[in-house]
Amino acid sequence: MSTEKKDIKIVDHIYQPKHEILSKDEADLIFKKFNSKPSQLPYIMSSDKGIQGLDAQPSDIIKITRKSSTAGESVYYRYVVEG
Known about the structure:
Elements: E1 18-21, H1 24-34, E2 43-45, E3 61-68, E4 72-81
Parallel strand pairs: 2-4
Antiparallel strand pairs: 1-3, 3-4
């Protein structure tokens, strides 16, 4: 039995939804579409393992695309905060 510690990356797991940082222009379109502001989105901490490797900074907008058995795909948006 090996005692080596393996570095497991959550972002590589098959059930981890796709996370991506939106460009400023893409984020502006989302805010216009939903008539909202960044602070009205649910927050995600910059230290969240789900955005590991994206180099997300506070005030970035993250687009999360999840597979759905009923809708095919569901898209969610999160506002990155310090953490």
